[in-house]
Amino acid sequence: TILHLDENLLTEIPDNIKNLRALRELNLSQNAIRDLPGGMFFLQRMTNLNLSHNPISMYAFPEGIGNYLW
């Protein structure tokens, strides 16, 4: 499953995103997201995550997440 939510003025990602277990690609670029929910990192099928052009602190990323960012 691929989900494109870029350019939607989103300010947060709901923690229940973890329920999208078939999600492989998620594009959240060009929003206003500052933090990442912990549930996001339970998406074991995720291969691509685009968070570019968001004011996210590098401290919001868990160790090893760099393998999924583009």
Task: Describe what you observe in this structure.
The chain has 70 residues and is an all-beta fold. 0% of the residues lie in helices and 13% in strands. The chain starts with a strand and ends in a 20-residue tail after the last strand.
Shape: globular
Number of E-type strands: 3
Order of helices and strands: EEE
Mean pLDDT: 87
Spatial strand order of the main sheet: 1-2-3
Helix content: under 10%
Ends distance: 17 Å
Alpha-beta content class:
mainly beta
Assembly status: single chain
Strand content: 5-15%
Main sheet: strands, sense, barrel: 3 strands, parallel
Q: Give the low-confidence spans.
A: none
Computed over alpha carbons, the radius of gyration is 11 Å
Q: With helices defined by DSSP (H or I, 4 residues minimum), what is the helix count?
A: 0
Furnish the topology, listing elements before pairings.
Layout lengths: L1 E3 L20 E3 L20 E3 L20
Parallel strand pairs: 1-2, 2-3
Supply the key terms:
3 strands; 70 residues; mainly beta; three-stranded parallel sheet
Question: What's the short story on this structure?
Answer:
The protein is mainly β and 70 residues long. 0% of the residues lie in helices and 13% in strands.
